[in-house]
Each structure stands twice: as structure tokens, then as C-alpha cells.
Amino acid sequence: MKPIIIKINKDILFKNNLNAQEVRQFLTTRGITAFNIMASPGAGKTSLILSALKLINHRVLVIEGDIASSIDTHKIKECGFEALQINTGGSCHLTAFMIKNILSEVKDHTYKLLFIENVGNLVCPAPYDLGESYKIVISSVPEGDDKPYKYPKIFSVADVIVLNKIDLINSIDYNYEYFEKGIRAVNIRAPIFKTSCKTGEGLQEWVNWIYSNLN
Q: Which residues does residue 135 pair with via DSSP β-bridges, in sequence order?
């Protein structure tokens, strides 16, 4: 008689999702809205966060995720804002466990907003729930207009999409209609903001969206 084999399938992100639920409950009970910011290296994540911080009239905490170094955390602190560093030591994305751990070290929770700058990558961060309220995906004009076609998953999970460095759009061969078509093929609901940290274009509109979605 052949043995009976019972297969038990479990989501490989099961533990991460449990940690994400804990983070979400922690933030919700304190009235903190968290934004998980994802983009490729050089898209302007830190610059966009800094530009927003200068327009926001609430206390904000920034968590910086990088494989190594604390360069961006120093940039934010030098501008007078509060930031914490997570170094993954090789992992190409943050996890909910990392966020839970670092938040457990924060004694003062009088923040209204939390910006989580994920590790620069358009692939690895996409499936990971960090307990955030919203996922923000940034693309930049110099990267090219084909990113939604090459990396559809990360654009499909976005609650909002920011096309940064829009001031360069007339300087290179960039087809915005092609970019938007790629977005809408996988995500019909996310608003798209065109921004420039250099000229200030679109920053207020993006910050207005942030304000309209606070807890």
C-alpha cells in the first residue's frame, strides 16, 4: 500500500505578512500613515522625500533602507529632519521584520507620517508588504519610458506613481504616452504625478495627495 502524501502549501511570505500585520496595527493605533517608497537607484527617492519634507507641516520620520552605508540618512538629518538607517547587508529589499525591529527602538511616536525609502531596486521590493499604508513607485525620465513593460509587478502594486526629473523630458528621447500606456496596462487606478526636485514642478500636487491620504 502506497503511503498517502499530503501536501501543505504555505505562502513563502507568510512570516513577512504576519510581521506586516503587526507593523500596520502598531502604526494605525498611533495614527501614523506610512508610505513605502520604491524605485531604482538614482531615480531620486531621497531628493523627492527631502523636497516633500520641506512642504509638510507635520512631524515625519524617515526610515532609510540600503545594502550598506548611511549616506542618505545623513543627508536628511543635515537638513534638520529625523531619520533612521537600516542596512540589509546584502538583501535587495526591506522586510516587515526589519521595520518592526527598528520601530521597536523608537520611544517617541508623535509622528504623523512615516516615509520608508526601500532599497533601490525595481524587482525585489515589489511583493513585500512592510505594513505600509501606501506604496509609492518612482520612475525617472533618464531611466527611459519602458520601465513599466520591463518591471510590471512593481507598477501593478503601486498606489501612486511619480515620474521624477520631468525637467529633462525635452532633453532626451522620452515618450510619456508610451510610459503611461505601460502603466495603465497593469494599473488603471494609481494617479501619476510628474515632478522635478530641481524646478519644483509637481511637488505641491504630490504633497497634496499625501495630505489627502493621512489617517
A: 36
CATH of the domain at 99: 3.40.50.300
Domains of the chain: total: 1
Q: Does the residue 7 lie in any domain?
A: no
The parent domain of residue 163 ranges over 28-206
Type of residue found at 10: K
pTM over 0.90: yes
Question: Would residue 2 count as lying in a domain?
Answer: no
Contact 24, 104 (CB under 8 A): no
Burial of 89 (0-12, 13-18, 19+ CB in 10 A): exposed
* Secondary structure, 3-state, 113-126: EEEEECCCCCCCCC
Report pLDDT digits (tens) over 118-165: 999 999 999 999 999 999 999 999 999 999 999 999 999 999 999 999
How many other C-beta atoms are found inside a 10 Å radius of the C-beta of residue 4? 5
Q: Exposed/middle/buried for 198, CB within 10 Å: 0-12, 13-18, 19+?
A: middle
